[in-house]
Amino acid sequence: MAVAFTEERMNEVLDRHARWWAGTLEGPLIPVTIWGAHPKAGHAKAPTLSQYSCADFRWTPEELIDTLDEELSTLDFAGDAYPRVNFDAFGPGVLAAFCGAKLDNSSGQVWFFPEKDQPIAQIHAHYDPDNVWAQRIKAIYRAGLDRWGKTVVMGMPDLGGVMDVAASLCGTENLLFALVDEPEEVMRLVGEVEAAWVDAYRDFSSVLHPASAGYTDWCGLLSPDPSYIIQCDFCYMIGNEMFRRFVLPTLKRDTERLTNTIYHLDGIGELCHLDSILELPNLNAVQWVYGAGKPGPMHWLDVYRRIRAAGKRMMVCGGARDVLDVIGVLSGDGIYANLGVGAGDRDTLEAILAVRK
User: 96, 40, 26: which is closest to 69 by C-alpha?
Assistant: First the structure.
């Protein structure tokens, strides 16, 4: 069974995404994936590519693509949605593994650990394109391109933020102490990780493009030009003075080297850095993730207003009702929300599509 999507439809979706990035799209950008729209063939043998299965090399890339194709074929794509494969299956911050850290998915989720405990002065980072994990991802990319061409977009791996990867390489607690005790070594390691990040991005892009219809990552935004969701989850644990010294310069360079960027603002501990992030002139948008156990999107209208007042677009997280409520108060201009509905929920689908222009 083949994914029911055409290159012509992909071009239409890509155009709307491009206009959203540029700030010229009227109204919101809302991809809606419809689950259970078609029966599953059930012929594929390999497990779903996930953090649980990513280290199982018994399956060929082609077999993994067979399974992904079956899963995509059960879906329909409405609004601004398109068929895509999320490559976060190899874990958040997988650049650490490309640089020699241990990838451990024994818990069913991927975590990264230093190969050994050593002083930060002895820790170095460089991207190895022949690393087993990098090679595996690139092999799956090639099999996917052979199967789908431009009708399915495969995302970039979740490379992670520069400081997040540095923390995986030397240990989070060790890095926190080093910020105070050995700041120059931290700056040196951050520079090496950033260079590795750029090398990895270029290497994966060289496999995917120009054969792919566009660029995407785990947040689902599609771009005709190089793009990424940039982040620093580590900054939850540091004050703004350290953020501006150790983190903000790397983010600034990210926004300068990539055409389109959105910042992943993860949790209330990062709100103290929001004004600094909004100062980045080339940053297009912010994704605010309020976190488990916290009030829903309508509680954070002040955050969305701050983002919009800075001239940035924003990704609103939550369910369909949450997103519709926010749009009802703030209007939909500049809002992106990636939603899903069941095949039988026509009322919700129609309500979502009604707010698109």
Answer: 40
- Give the residue carrying structure tokens 């230093």: 114
**Two tokens at 115?**
């190969």
CB 160 within 8 A of CB 99: no
Dihedral sign for Cα 312, 313, 319, 320, please: positive
Q: How far is CA 240 from CA 177, 246, 253, 302, in A?
A: 16, 10, 18, 20
pLDDT for the residue 1: 44
pLDDT at 2: 59
Report in angstroms the alpha-carbon separations of 327 from 262, 285, 294, 321, 330.
Answer: 19, 16, 20, 10, 5
- Quote the pLDDT of residue 206: 98
The rounded average pLDDT for each run of 10 residues, N- to C-terminus, in the chain (357 residues) is 80 98 97 95 95 97 97 96 97 97 96 93 97 98 97 98 97 97 98 98 98 97 98 97 98 98 97 98 98 93 98 97 96 96 95 90
**Rounded CA separation 305/326 (Å):** 11
Count the alpha carbons within 13 Å of 131 in the hemisphere toward its beta carbon: 23
Buried b (16+ CB within 10 A) or exposed e, 142-172: bbbbebbebbbbbbbbbbbbbbbbbbbbbbe
* pLDDT confidence of residue 355: 94
- Paired with 286 in beta bridges are 263, 314
Residues 57 and 281: their CA atoms lie apart, in Å, by 43
Residue 281 CA, distance from chain mean position: 21
Classified as helix, coil or strand, 339 is strand
Q: In this structure, what is the dihedral angle of CA atoms 72, 76, 81, 85, given to the nearest 10 degrees?
A: 0
User: Is cis: bond before 157, omega within 30 of 0?
Assistant: no
What is the sign of the dihedral through the CA atoms of 347, 349, 350 and 351?
positive
CB of 169 closer than 8 Å to CB of 162: no
Residue 112 makes CB contacts below 8 A (sequence gap 6+) with 91, 93, 94, 96, 97, 101, 102, 103, 104, 168
Question: Would you call 300 helix, strand, or coil by DSSP?
Answer: helix
Q: Is 7 exposed, middle or buried (0-12, 13-18, 19+ CB in 10 A)?
A: exposed
